[in-house]
C-alpha cells in the first residue's frame, strides 16, 4: 500500500477517534482495533499495539485538558488509582493467556450494556446514598486494570460509572480520573508491544497525529454539555461498545 491509501485514512480515523475520546475520556482502541484488523489486514496483536501507539498521546492530551478545565483535587487518591491500575493491568494480562477470550468478551459486553442502559434510564442504582471515601478509590483502579489486562480495552469505560456512582463525582470529574487510570497503563502496554515488535509505527503515528488534532475539540464539547446530557451520551456509548464487542 502507498502513503495515500494507508496514512491518509489513518489520519482521518485518528481524528474521529480523538474527538470522541476527548468527549468521553477514553482512548478509542475499542473502535481502532477491529478497523485495523479488518481494514488493514493486521493480526490481532499488531492491531492492539498500533492502537496503543495512537491512544497514549491522545490520552495524555485529553487528561491534560480535563485537568486544566475541571481539576478534581483528589491528590494521592487519583495517583493510587493510576498505580493500582498499572500493576493490575500487567498482572491480569499474564492471567488472560489461560482464559477463554470469547467468554470474557461476552461477559464484559453484557456488563457494559447493563451499565449503559442504567445510565440512560437513570434507574440502575449506581448512585450511592453516601459517597464512598476517596481512600477507597484505588479499588476502581483494580477494576479498570483487570478490564484492560484481560480484554485490552475498557479501563475508562469501567472506571467512569464506578466513580460517578459510588464516589459521587460528576461525569466530567470522573472522566478526568479515568484518564489518569488509563494513561500510564496504556503506556506500559505500548512498551510491552513495542518490545515484541507488534506495532505498525507509521500507521500508529498517523492515527496519533489525527487524534491530537481533535482531542481538544472533544474535551471542549464535553465541558459545553450538561452533566445529565454527557452522562446519558456516555451511557449510549457504553451500550454501543457492548454491542460491538458482542459482534466481534
Automatic annotation (TrEMBL):
Spans traversing the lipid bilayer: 12-38, 50-67, 73-90, 102-121, 141-169, 201-222
Organism of derivation: Azospirillum oleiclasticum
Keywords, in A-Z order: Cell membrane, Membrane, Transmembrane, Transmembrane helix
Membrane topology recorded in Swiss-Prot or TrEMBL: Multi-pass membrane protein
Name assigned to this protein: Probable membrane transporter protein
InterPro entries: TM_pro_TauE-like, TSUP/Inactive_protease-like
Subcellular location: Cell membrane; Membrane
Keyword Membrane in annotation: yes
Family: Belongs to the 4-toluene sulfonate uptake permease (TSUP) (TC 2.A.102) family.
Lineage, top ranks: Bacteria, Pseudomonadati, Pseudomonadota, Alphaproteobacteria, Rhodospirillales
Amino acid at each position: 500500500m502507498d502513503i495515500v491509501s494507508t496514512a491518509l485514512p489513518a489520519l482521518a480515523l485518528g481524528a474521529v477517534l480523538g474527538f470522541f475520546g476527548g468527549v468521553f475520556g477514553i482512548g478509542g482502541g475499542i473502535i481502532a482495533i477491529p478497523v485495523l484488523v479488518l481494514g488493514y489486514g493486521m493480526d490481532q496483536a499488531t492491531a492492539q499495539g498500533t492502537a496503543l501507539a495512537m491512544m497514549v498521546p491522545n490520552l495524555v492530551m485529553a487528561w491534560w485538558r480535563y485537568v486544566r478545565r475541571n481539576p478534581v483535587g483528589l491528590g494521592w487518591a487519583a495517583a493510587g488509582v493510576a498505580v493500582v491500575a498499572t500493576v493490575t493491568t500487567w498482572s491480569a494480562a499474564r492471567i488472560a493467556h489461560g482464559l477463554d477470550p470469547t467468554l470474557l468478551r461476552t461477559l464484559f459486553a453484557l456488563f457494559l450494556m447493563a451499565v449503559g442502559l442504567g445510565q440512560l434510564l437513570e434507574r440502575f442504582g449506581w448512585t450511592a446514598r453516601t459517597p464512598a471515601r476517596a481512600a477507597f478509590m484505588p479499588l476502581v483502579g483494580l477494576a479498570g486494570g483487570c478490564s484492560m489486562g484481560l480484554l485490552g480495552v475498557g479501563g475508562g469505560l469501567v472506571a467512569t460509572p464506578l466513580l460517578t456512582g459510588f464516589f459521587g463525582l460528576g461525569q466530567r470529574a470522573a472522566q478526568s480520573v479515568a484518564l489518569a487510570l488509563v494513561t500510564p497503563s496504556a503506556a506500559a502496554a505500548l512498551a510491552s508491544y513495542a518490545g515484541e515488535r507488534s506495532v505498525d509505527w507509521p500507521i500508529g503515528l498517523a492515527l496519533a497525529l489525527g487524534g491530537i488534532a481533535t482531542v481538544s475539540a472533544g474535551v471542549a464539547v464535553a465541558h459545553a454539555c450538561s452533566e445529565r446530557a454527557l452522562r446519558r451520551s456516555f451511557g449510549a456509548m457504553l451500550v454501543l461498545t457492548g454491542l460491538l464487542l458482542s459482534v466481534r
